[in-house]
Give the backbone structure.
Amino acid sequence: MYRLSKRLFDFIISLIVFILLLPLLLPIMIGLKLTGEGYIFYKQKRIGYQRKYFHILKFATMLKDSPNMGTGSITLRNDPRITPMGGFLRKTKINELPQIINIIKGDLSLVGPRPLVDRTFNAYTEEVQNKVYNLKPGLTGIGSIVFRDEEALVSNYNGDPHEFYKNKIAPYKGALEMWYQQNASFLLDMKLIFLTAWVVIFPDSNLHFRLFKTLPKKPEF
């Protein structure tokens, strides 16, 4: 029942949001066409529900050949691969808005574990890999909220960013996603949607730790 009502909620809300945001999306699309390399959308293969692949949709914020340049699948703060408009779109999370189309299609939910590429997914333990996508991945979720500034964390590490992700970020992110699996409910989803908006406005806030007393303890990075 929870999953059925969640899908209905996702579809109705995302359709309404898409219509309301069209006046914002169109100028961004024009701006992207006239700057950078002139392409608007970025498609990437991600792991989705029941570990089946789908293509996630975002506004293009990086050079087309970015996966084969620099740090590859990991993006750093002030990454030279980011286009002129890309920095603003990434900082404000506006680059994620085209994923509303993924929600309408049924690839994503509004709330759930973030869909990952193979390399970052493989950084999870086998237990997390086997369970994390028993629920449909989401546009936002507890992992996205806690690691809202993941780029800054990786950028401040003096070493291999892939090793830092594998040994530090992935274990805690996996624990957060398992916490969501154990506590998933419509009420929790509403709280996470609110917190997503909250941390965009107040990026240094730790309100989620005050609201959710049973969250896994955050390690020192």
In short: The mean pLDDT is 90.
